[in-house]
Write a structure and sequence with these properties.
This protein is an alpha/beta fold and 159 residues long. It has one domain: Response regulator (Rossmann fold), CATH 3.40.50. It is 36% helix and 13% strand. The chain is built from five helices and four strands, in the order E-H-E-H-H-E-H-E-H. Bound molecules: 4-nitrophenyl phosphate (4NP).
Length: 159
């Protein structure tokens, strides 16, 4: 007979460059989607860079998430670390550069599978989630649409 301890929660880390725009939006969208589906998951986000460590998400990201009904203001940026490859089942990078940088940190015995976020979305394999940091507020709406599609695909596959 199965019990709760037989079914380990999926552990998923969302990765971008600064961990203040794309990956906190992805974490927020995934938290909302998993909660709505009643599925437990361990979700987190990180950046390959260290410039924004300890900072909350960009105010434009917080505002866009709020428009979509999700509060990400409590998230704080952190940098990707080698132990993340043991602690997570899946690390999802926003773009090719994040993917390449993560590969250089990935230990040989890594548990985590590493792929692009949009690899999970039918018809979007190999595509990047565009970096909205240097653009206008409209870029953040597009980012949300992308990461919400990723979150929906994760829930559809049960993580
Ligand atoms: P993110 O966006 O990787 O989606 O968090 C960026 C945030 C900060 C910088 C670049 C991208 N930056 O150069 O500081």
């Amino acid at each position: 007979m199965r019990n709760d301890s037989d079914v380990r929660k999926p552990a998923i880390l969302f990765l971008c460059l600064g961990n203040i725009c794309r990956s906190p939006l992805a974490e927020g969208a995934a938290r909302a989607a998993f909660a709505a589906a009643g599925i437990e998951a361990a979700l987190d986000s990180a950046g390959t860079g260290d410039w924004h460590v300890g900072h909350p998400p960009d105010r434009r990201a917080v505002a866009e998430a709020r428009r979509r009904g999700v509060d990400i203001s409590d998230l704080r940026a952190r940098q990707l670390r080698a132990s993340d490859f043991a602690d997570f089942d899946l690390i999802l990078a926003a773009d090719d550069t994040n993917l390449r940088d993560a590969r250089t940190l990935r230990p040989a015995n890594a548990r985590a599978e590493l792929k692009l976020m949009l690899d999970l979305v039918p018809g979007r394999t190999g595509q990047s989630v565009a970096d909205p940091y240097y653009g206008d507020d409209g870029g953040f709406a597009a980012t949300w649409d992308d990461v919400a599609a990723v979150a929906a695909a994760l829930v559809a596959s049960r993580g």
